[in-house]
Amino acid sequence: MHTYNVKKFPTHNKHLKAWVKKMADMCQPDDIVWIDGSAEQKQRLEKEAVTAGELIPLNEEKMPGSFLHRTNANDVARTEHLTYICSRTKKEAGPNNNWMAPRAGYQKARAIFKGAMRGRTMYVIPFSMGPVGSTFSKIGVELTDSRYVVLNMLIMTRAGAAVTALLDKGADFTRCLHSLADLDVNKRLILHFPQDNTIWSVGSGYGGNVLLGKKCLALRIASFMGLKEKWFAEHMLIMGIEEPNGRITYIAAAFPSACGKTNLAMLLPPEGLKRKGYRIWTVGDDIAWMRVDSDGALWAINPESGFFGVAPGTNSHTNPTMVETIRKNTIFTNVLLKPDGTLWWEGADGEVPSRGIDWQGKPWKPGMLDGQGKPILGAHPNSRFTAPINQCPSASFRLEQHHGVPISAIIFGGRRAHLAPLVYESFNWRHGVFVGATMASERTAAQYGKQGEVRRDPMAMLPFCGYNMATYFKHWLNMGYRMAAAPRIFHVNWFRIDEKGKFLWPGYRENLRVLEWIVARCENKLQALPSPIGYIPKIEDIDLTGLNLPRESLEKLLMVDRKAWLEELERVKKFFKEFKNDFPQELWDEFEGLRMRLNRPV
Ligand code: GTP
Ligand code: SPV
Ligand code: MN
User: Which of 57, 87, 150, 461 has the CB geometry, 3.0–4.6 Å to 92, for a possible disulfide?
Assistant: First the structure.
C-alpha cells in the first residue's frame, strides 16, 4: 500500500490536499503528478502516451503536433443511461434524470474506484472554466489516470499553475474524480453530487464522460449553481455577426448534440451574401454561461477554451474554418488512419482512401461490408477532434473578456424532418421559454439509443440539466423578469425534408440568410407575419441571392401545418405532465394559448 506525502503536494490549499490524499488512498495510484500547464510537461505526457500506445503521432509535416487516439468499441459516445444525478432526493433530480441517493452512489462507485489506479499515475488537473479569475468562472480539479484526459483538458480548459495560484488563495473548486478502471460497461458510472460540488466518473474513456469540465461541470453542476446564484449554464454556441458598419450582434443558440452548433458558430458567409460584407466571430461552440448585468441585458461567456467537435462531415466546403483550425496541435479520436500518417473520415476532404486503419484499429478498404451487409465505416459517426479555440481563424477577440458578450437573441433548434419551420420568432420571453421547453429532436450518434427517433429535448438540455427540469423552466421564466433588455427568442430547423426525403434547406453557410433575418428583427428593421406558433418571415425578407432555391421550397420551409401542430401538442402535453404539479402554470397557459390559436379559423 502506498502512502502519499501530503507535504509534497504543490499547493497551500488544505482542502485540496486533504481531498487529493483521500482519493489517492482509495484509488491507490503508484504516483501522483500535478499538472502545471507547461509546454515541457505536455510534451513529456505526449511522449509517454505514444510509448504506451495511447496516442499515435500523425504526419509531422502535414499535421504538426497532432495525434490519433482510439477508444474501446463500446465506449464511443456519452452513456446517458449510466449517468446519474445524486441529489438528496429523487424529486430534486426530476423525471429528466436518472437518480441515485448520494450514499448509494458513493458506495457503488467506491467499490469500482478502489485500487483502480494501481500501477498507474494519478494526474491532478487544476482547471478554470472561463477566463482565470473572472467572476463568471468556476474552478475544478480533476483527478484522472488517463493521459488522454489530461492532454484533452489542457486544450478544452485553462489548466495549470495560474489556477493553482487561485486555489492557493483558498478558492472553492468542484471535486472531479475519474478513472478508466477496466473500461467495463457494466462497471461504468458517471455520477454528479450537486450538493457536494462533486463528480465521480469511472469505467469510460470517452470525451463527454471523462472530460469532466465539459458536460459534467459546465452543464450539470453549473446549471445547479446557476439556479442558486441566478444565472444560466446552457448547451449553446455563442457567435457574433458583424455587419459592414462594424456593429456586432451576439447570439446564443441551443441545438441538441450533433445538430449543428459547431458548424454554425464559425460559418463563412455564402457566395451570394459576400457582397453584404458580413463577418462571423466565434465565441463558443457548445456551452454558454450567461448572467444578467447591471444594464439589464444578458451577458455570456464560453467557459471552454477548445472545441471537441464531430469529425464526419467536416470538410473545406461545409466548414473551412474548422478545417483550418484542426491543421495542428489537435487530438483526433476514432477516425481512419491513412498509410501516410494523415487522417480521413466519412465526408472529409479529398478522395476516399484506397486503404487505411479504421477507428477500431482494423485494416479498412472502401466497400467493405459487415455481417448485416452494411458498409463498414472508416471513422465512427461520433468520432471527434479536440483543438484549441485560439487556432480558429474566426475566434472572437473577446474570448478572454472577463465580462463576456451581450446577447441579443437566443435561438432554439432541433433536427426535425417535419413540422418545425425554417425559422420563427416567439411573441415574448414567456412564449420563448415555452418554445424552448417544447423542443424535440431526432436522436444522433452523439448518444447511445435508437438513431432518428424523435425525443423531447427542452433547450437541448435534457441530458445536461443537473436538477428537476420543472424547476429549470421556472428559473428560465424568473430570469426573464430580471432582465430589462431580455434577448429575443427564435426557433430554427435546418433539417426539414421533402416528400423524397431530401433536405429542403441547403444548411451550413446558407444558414446566414436566416441569421440575417434574426438580426434584422433584433434591430426592429423588419416586420413579420404572425402565425399560431410565432412570427414567421415574409418570403421576400429571406435573401436568396445566389442560391438556387425555388420559391415553393421556401414556402414549404416556412409552412405551419396546423393539424400536425395539434398532434404535436398531444406529445408536448404528455411530456409536460411527467413533471406533475411541479410544472409551472405559465407554460400550461402558453400551451392553451397555442392550442386556441391553432384551432382558430383562418
Ligand atoms: P455536439 O458537439 O455533439 O454538441 O454537436 P454540434 O451541435 O456542435 O453539431 P455539429 O456542428 O458538429 O454538426 C453535427 C452534424 O450535423 C454534422 O454531421 C454536420 O455535418 C451536420 N450539420 C451541421 N449543420 C448542418 C446544416 O445546416 N444542415 C445539415 N443538413 N446538416 C448540418
Ligand atoms: C455532445 O454530445 O453534446 C458533445 C460531445 O458536445 S460530448 O462532450 O461527448 O458531450
Ligand atoms: Mn454538445
Answer: 87
Pick the ligand that lies closest to the CA of residue 514: 1
Q: Is the dihedral of CA 206, 72, 82, 579 positive or negative?
A: positive
Query: By alpha-carbon position, which residue is closest to atom 12 of ligand 1?
Result: 310
The continuous run of DSSP H or E covering 508 comes out as: none
Give the span between the Cα atoms of 475 and 452, in whole angstroms: 30
- Low-confidence stretches of the chain (pLDDT < 70) are 1
| 256 CA: nearest ligand 2 atom | 3
Q: Identify the pLDDT of residue 28.
A: 98
pLDDT of residue 445: 72
Give the residue numbers marked as catalytic. 259
The residue whose CA is least distant from atom 9 of ligand 2 is 208
Q: How many domains does the chain divide into?
A: 3
Q: Looking at the chain, how many residues does it have?
A: 602
Q: What's the pLDDT at 449?
A: 72
What's the pLDDT score for residue 568? Answer: 96
Same domain, 464 and 563: yes
* Ligand 1 within 6 A of CB of 533: no
Q: What does residue 195 show for φ and ψ, rounded to 5 degrees?
A: -70, -25
Confidence at residue 2, expressed as pLDDT on a 0 to 100 scale: 80
3 state DSSP class of 501: coil
Query: What spacing in Å lies between the alpha carbon of 311 and ligand 1's midpoint?
Result: 10
11/89 same-domain check: yes
What is the C-alpha separation between 94 and 98, in angstroms, rounded? 8
pLDDT of residue 446: 72
The answer to whether 528 and 536 are in contact (CB under 8 A) is: yes
Range of the domain at 263: 234-305+399-599
Final residue before a domain boundary, out of 362, 389, 416? 389
Q: Look at residues 229, 257, 289 and tell me which one is the last residue of a structural domain.
A: 229
- pLDDT given at position 1: 67
pTM of the model: 0.97
In this structure, the answer to whether residues 427 and 547 fall within a common structural domain is: yes
User: What's the CA-to-centroid distance between 447 and ligand 3, angstroms?
Assistant: 10
Q: Is residue 50 part of a domain?
A: no
